[in-house]
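name: query_chain
kind: protein
chains: 1
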Amino acid sequence: MQDDALALQGGNQSSRAVDSPIRRAVVLRSVDETPAAVCPTVKRPLQKRVWFDPPRPVVCALDEGATVECVVLGIWNSGARIRAQSPRLLTEFNLLFASGPAPVWRRCKRLVVRGDVVDVEFLPKTPR
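structure:
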């Protein structure tokens, strides 16, 4: 009530005096003005991405037994970006990283094709 009296003395009308269909929003603020501090659901873990320069050679093994030579341009937790000579053949396949100390493979599904560059999603591993 004191704020209303001060607003009227200064020549301004109180927010209660104006008959407006728009309601004022309540905004919660803390000392830290970042959106994550105001709304904890905004916090999302950043996905780490690794880009290879030069690209690393990998083997794309199709279910029919054929292989396609590819290079991996980048990799992240849920997928990768690869360059292949015939990307339309790669719908679901195994991506084999054989250049490290131990071969590693991931089951992949094609998401997006842009020319010879393919974005793939890693599928969850199924227990044997």
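note: The mean pLDDT is 76.
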